[in-house]
C-alpha cells in the first residue's frame, strides 16, 4: 500500500510583492494586451446587439423580410447573435492561450521564485 503525499505548495508572495508586480512593466504589458483585445471586441458585440434590438423594436417590416420560405431576416440576425458569441469565445480562448497565458505564467513563476520560503 502506497502512502499518498500532499502536493507541495509553492511559496506564497506577500501583499507587497503583489502590489510591486502590478506596477511592473511585464504586468502592465499583460493588462495592455488584454484590454486591447477585450475593449474593441466588447464594443463591437454591444453595438451589434443594440442594432439587433433596435431593428427588432423599430424596423418590423425590415426584420420580417422573408429570405427563404418562412425564414425572415429577424430569425437570421438572431441566430447570428449566437454565432457571434461562439466566434468571440473561440477568438478569446485562442488569444488567451497564445498571448495572455504564457505571460501570466511567467509572472506567476517569477513571483513564486521571489516569495519568502516558509
Automatic annotation (TrEMBL):
Record Pfam families: DUF485
Keyword GTP-binding (UniProt): no
Alphabetical UniProt keywords: Membrane, Transmembrane, Transmembrane helix
Membrane-crossing residue ranges in chain numbering: 37-59, 71-93
UniProt keyword Amino-acid biosynthesis, yes or no: no
PANTHER family xrefs: INTEGRAL MEMBRANE PROTEIN-RELATED, MEMBRANE PROTEIN
Name of the protein this chain belongs to: Clumping factor B
Source species: Gordonia amarae NBRC 15530
